[in-house]
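Teaching assistant's notes for section 4

Start the section by putting this record on the projector. Ask students to predict, before seeing the second block, whether EamA domain-containing protein will look compact or extended. Collect guesses on the board.
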Amino acid sequence: MSTDPRVPPTVGLVVAVTAVSGGAILVRLSDAPSTVAAFYRVLFTTLPLVPIALWRYRTHLAGITRRDLGFATLSGVALALHFAAWFESLAWTSVAASVTLVQAQPVFVALGAWVLLRERVTARMAAGIAIAVAGMAAMSLGDLLGGVLVGPRPIYGNGLALFGAVMAAGYVLAGRSLRQRVALVPYVVVVYGVCTLSLLGIVLVEGHGLTGYPPSEWAIFVGLAVGPGLLGHTVVNWALAHLESSVVSVSLLGEPVGATVLAFVFLAEAPTTFTLVGGAVVLAGITLTATESDP
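Reveal the predicted structure now:
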């Protein structure tokens, strides 16, 4: 562990969680196609890191093997599909449901590691997965049966958010061994570069334009990069050098809470009872899974 950071790590985590919590609100405020917003979010996050990678990490970049580049490509494509699905989900379901379900990534990481890597699933992890799945069912089906819905097609939006969680797990699993061999900055630049190109391909296939947006949209694109991207995930990576990974993982579960509060304040979007109760159950299951699976 690093010692004597200038900024207390707990303060950094508060900043990071606050920054990522605002991401869903910015996406909802944007009138641009969701894949365009996702493309510029990743592009503007990556661009400031490229000169650093080329200047300080030239040897690291040159040392990336063809095999590692293959894993980086898989990781980047999975990350692109995560962003595309999650951004789109916010158009169809509530912020509270979308952000909570997409945060279920640790559950799918544990399942994926068990199926693909033959890693052991403990009784605690199995219980966490079961609890999280029960909460997801309550969130998705409870509102439908209760007749109180938030969003034009909440079941579809919830499905997209879950797919986004699965793709985020794929991003983690594909990049886990790679991250142990490649330094953080070149790793992020390569994976985010693949992600950017993948999102660009999706945008072009969908036929959306990349220009012609008003200044307010460009401000949102930059805000998504600076907030959730640089102040959010970059600070999280910094905090991991000073705090236990389980503490950081559980702290990030504050994002659904923060996003729900911000959605109520700025969008006047009140979550339903089933979303609140089911979301709490999901977060409890994720906590069990994440704290057990962390080294």
